[in-house]
Amino acid sequence: MLSKSEMKACLAGEPTPIVPAVLFSFDGKFTERYEAEVSRMHEMYENDFVTCRPTLEKRAPDPELEPGEFTDDWGSLFCAAPDGVGSHPTRPIVSSVEQWEDYLANKIPLLVPETPATDITSTVAANPDRYVVARFWRTFYERMYMLIGFENLMIEIATGGDLFMRMLKELRDFTIKGIELIAGTGADAVFLADDWGTQRRLQISPTMWRKYFRPGYAAMIDTAHARGLDVWMHSCGHITDVIPDWIDIGLDVIAHLQAAALDLPAIAEAYRGRITFFGGIDVQFNLVNGTRESIREEVRALMDNFHAHEGKYIAAPCNTIMPETPVENVWTLFDAIREFGTLTPPLRQR
Q: Which of 153, 244, 301, 348 is the most exposed place for a label (fewest CB within 10 A)?
């Protein structure tokens, strides 16, 4: 396990004893299926930094729910996927400027310092020499469509609608307020998240992304840096078009590099050393259907392409490891990450 100073060295582009890694990213059903094996994995391996998250104070009572629906702290409505793995938004709860104003006044979750900071401050106190990352997810772009519906949001963005423009500003400000709160907890980084890519392109044009969303992210990053926080961003899918923008506005870490949607060797060639890349290990195909040899080769190639031993790369699966993944493939993955991520790898016995 790496220390706080070693994690900071990696982000600065300096060599570390091992390539930092996040190994444990399991869907709950994978853990249930392989409970004993997962317990053994935790005995042998650990992640190289600590994560936590703020606790939001929910204000709004739940509406009448349809069968299978549930809500989150924001009151957004979701339904579990048919196989129980993951969930998706169901119905919008805001459809007009007037409803948005009511939502802001009465329903948006509260960021009361003593409530959301509790878990973060206790995590920091318990890990004085560890790098602590506070996740603050689904507060900006993704929260928009969770509140008003994806199709409605696309129409609002395309037309520069008044509802969208208000949400853009007010959710940016909410996120900045959360970043400021996290900065006061002693955490080392804030981890934001907005999935921007489909499998082949951005969800909106790069031009519109730059017009509407880049300024908000720049303000978030500037706020965090002014308060001593590194900024990490999770964004799945084909995000190649905006990687230069993330670099330009000072983002520290981009995650999780969805392998099936990106040309990772080309991205490494163009941008390595300019931002810390996190992830890139395919969970959609190779980890599910691959062999020991193909998984090891994927990890080795990623390490080589991103010059991982020079810093600015964090090894990890590109998303959650699904329950259909053979457990032996996960053992192979963990072993390969530590083997190829260590200049003189230790011998491990299972």
A: 348
